[in-house]
Design goal:
Distance between the termini: 36 Å
Radius of gyration: 19 Å
Strand order of the largest sheet: 3-2-1-4-5-6-10
Bound molecules: nicotinamide-adenine-dinucleotide
Structural class: alpha/beta
Helix content: 25-40%
């Protein structure tokens, strides 16, 4: 299939691109490189340096220089939860306006499938665990709100324009390509594992642990981490699903196992052999004690399981990338 991967130079996007190329799909990456990296691009994929907020350029790309696309994979967004609460305007424009442009460009380009990077942030505080797709959606952050609104736009474009979508609600994405082909480090990471890796290789002094008095076995927050190679496989399976069944889906993508902050820090110390100083600080507002996914729907519909999402693989594949000398 011919695919347009928007945000394909980013952390998750580059893994999706690699997976699609491995499966023989044609890939064009469209990215403004705001957080994406040139080193994440592959020579086998065409690259268009463009911005989803520039509708003219985007629609020209979506209409295809070489005869159009079967699908768009849409990963382009701002994703810092804290920033979205102080600068919602930025998130409204890039995430929501940007997506409306993508949807309209898909209509113009007659593209029938969209695979969208949604997030567990659509759920908000858990009412029960593990969180399945039927769990109420009540985002705690403006970022989560943008993802939920986009899911609703997708629903309307499905109904009115026949664009089939897969809204993939990732839990915590982590790790690097299990075959070691992707090396771009995330800039200013806010997620735990890259922060720990930065501490392990001396790029930052300590890791902050936000609260150790939660109702969890070791008192630190428990989250569901899903390996980015598993996420990439899920995108390919989702595209197969929407295109073959002519049907849209919304699915959770998680490993279904909870790992605590302390367990990750300890595993990272063991695997890297580095001391990784950590400091307990106060809880962050809105952080639940525990968040885990039910991914039964992804197992059933996509025949997908998070096979690479065990703690050691998450850390080892990250460390392989971070410990390499750079520049
Ligand atoms: N990382 C996670 O744990 C996680 C969890 C849930 C959902 N998501 C979602 O997955 C997607 C990818 O996340 P990521 O972690 O790879 O982040 P990332 O920042 O590495 O990737 C985003 C990519 O989109 C590009 N981009 C952003 N705005 C753009 C614009 N206006 N025009 C063109 N390109 C633009 C960036 O340059 C970058 O390459 C995002 O939509 C994010 O919200 C991520």
């Amino acid at each position: 299939m011919k695919t347009l991967i928007v945000g394909g130079a980013g952390y998750i996007g580059s893994h999706v691109v690699r997976e699609f190329l491995d499966r023989g799909h044609g890939v064009t990456v469209f990215d403004n490189l705001s957080s994406g990296k040139r080193e994440n691009l592959f020579p086998e994929a065409e690259f268009i340096h463009g911005d989803i907020l520039d509708y003219t350029g985007l629609s020209r790309a979506a209409s295809g220089r070489r005869g159009g696309f079967d699908a768009v994979v849409h990963l382009a967004a701002f994703k810092a939860v804290g920033e979205s609460m102080v600068n919602p305007e930025k998130y409204s424009v890039n995430n929501i306006n940007g997506t409306i442009n993508i949807l309209n460009a898909a209509v113009e380009g007659n593209i029938k499938n969209i695979i969208f990077s949604s997030s567990a942030a659509v759920f908000g505080q858990p009412e029960y665990l593990p969180i399945d797709e039927a769990h109420p959606t009540n985002p705690e952050s403006y970022y989560g709100f943008t993802k939920l609104e986009i899911e609703r736009f997708l629903g309307w474009y499905d109904k009115l324009k026949g664009i089939r979508f897969a809204a993939l609600r990732y839990f915590n994405a982590a790790g690097y390509d299990v075959k070691g082909r992707i090396k771009g480090l995330e800039s200013n990471p806010a997620n735990l594992i890259p922060v720990i890796m930065e501490a392990a290789c001396g790029m930052r002094e300590t890791v902050q642990i936000f609260g150790n008095d939660y109702d969890t076995p070791d008192g630190t927050g428990v989250r569901d981490y899903v390996h980015v190679s598993d996420l990439a496989i899920a995108h390919a399976a989702a595209l197969e699903y929407t295109s073959k069944n002519d049907k849209s889906i919304t699915v959770n993508l998680g490993s279904e196992s909870g790992i605590s902050v302390l367990e990750i820090v300890e595993a990272a110390r063991r695997i890297t052999g580095k001391p990784i100083p950590a400091r307990i600080v106060g809880r962050r507002a809105g952080d639940p004690a525990k968040l885990t996914a039910a991914s039964k729907k992804a197992h059933e519909l996509l025949h997908w399981t998070a096979n690479n999402s065990d703690l050691d693989t998450l850390i080892k594949t990250s460390w392989d990338v971070y410990q390499k000398p750079r520049r």
